[in-house]
Amino acid sequence: MDTSGIKRITFRFLRPRGAERSRRAILTYHSVGGGPLSLPAGQFEAQMRLVSGEARVVSLEALLDSEPSGESCVAITFDDGYATVVERAAPAMNTLGFVGTVFVTAGWVGTASRRASDPDKGHYPGERFMTWEDLQALRAQGWTIGSHGVEHDDLTAVSTGRLEEELAISRTSIAENVGAPCEHYAYTWGLNDARVRKAVRRAGYASAATTIHGPVTEGADRFALPRMDVTPHCTLSDFAAIVRGEWDYLGVYQRARSFARSIRLGGKRSS
């Protein structure tokens, strides 16, 4: 469902009084120019051109380690590991000198060929997953390869043993096949709780990302990093508003909804 119209109306009433001079934001994408849920390639290219004039695009590591500098920084991330990232997103970003981060579902990465996505597993329909060779190519271009688990499961709903296996196997598999440490994690559907966050930390990751909308503020929990989802329904002006922080009120709503859900579930799940 396209909720962008509701967000635009809400923004009129909750417009922030002033933009931050030093702002850190992580954008979330999935597929570019692929299946029916994919962001059109032309739309993505226009967004990349716009963000180049709004902020300094940096790697995820550089964003997390940056100090207030009087300028805004943006990191661009992709979840799941679809082939359109290497086919369409990376070439568009390369022309602007951008690098990104892709959080891959390790169990679906292909060896000799690209595997088809399975909507029953929560994948985008009509997509293909990257191969290890594709990921090696991205890494050679300066990209960061992070983990999105092994099977794209909700880790808050699995046993502790299964949780630890998902975190360890995906991290080891990515590091061995890409030839670089896997230090960052993205929760499937953003779902996490205290048990999952502790397990991610114990598994050796340096950070983990949620789907809560908002900037990365000073002192932010590195194992509950906010990110800003960019959907095909976002107009270019919507995208500019996201980058500038004009839709940051969404995070307040999401946290309130998450808190209410955790109360219903007896405090077992939170984001």
What is the arithmetic mean of pLDDT?
A: 90
CATH class: Alpha Beta
* CATH fourth-tier homologous superfamily: Glycoside hydrolase/deacetylase
- Helix coverage percent of residues? 25-40%
Distance between the termini: 22 Å
* Derived structural class: alpha/beta
Strand content: 5-15%
> What are the secondary-structure elements, in order, as H or E?
HEHEHEHEHEHEHEEHH
Contiguous low-pLDDT stretches (5 residues minimum) are none
* Gyration radius, rounded: 18 Å
Determine the number of helices (DSSP H or I, runs of at least 4 residues).
9
What's a concise summary of this model?
The protein is α/β, with parallel strands linked by helices.
Report on this structure.
With 271 residues, this protein is α/β, with parallel strands linked by helices. It has a single domain (4-9, 20-264), classed as Glycoside hydrolase/deacetylase (TIM Barrel). 38% of the residues lie in helices and 12% in strands. The chain is built from 9 helices and 8 strands. It has helices spanning 4-14, 41-54, 60-65, 84-94, 132-140, 160-178, 194-202, 236-244, 249-264; strands at 24-29, 56-57, 73-80, 101-104, 144-147, 184-186, 207-209, 228-229. Strands 1, 2, 3, 4, 5 and 8 form a 6-stranded parallel sheet that branches. β6 (184-186), α7 (194-202) and β7 (207-209) form a beta-alpha-beta unit. α2 packs parallel to α4 and α6 (160-178) crosses α7. The longest helix is centred in the middle third of the chain and has 19 residues, at 160-178.
